[in-house]
Amino acid sequence: MFSGEYVKKTVSKRWDDFDGVKIQRDLYSAFLIMNVKNDLCEIDSQRRLDVRDKKLLFEE
Description:
By secondary structure, this protein is of the alpha+beta class. The protein contains two helices and two strands, in the order E-E-H-H. The radius of gyration is 12 Å and the shape is globular.
């Protein structure tokens, strides 16, 4: 589940699992950067959900 909580991962952990969907760390970082607010300090959660729901990046 996407909780919005920051969890630091080790460099060796390349993959993560979100509700059964495996996501590569660098791709997920790019996804978050794509959805950052103009202040560059916060993720736009609604935009992130809209993009995810449209399956523009992650396919089942």
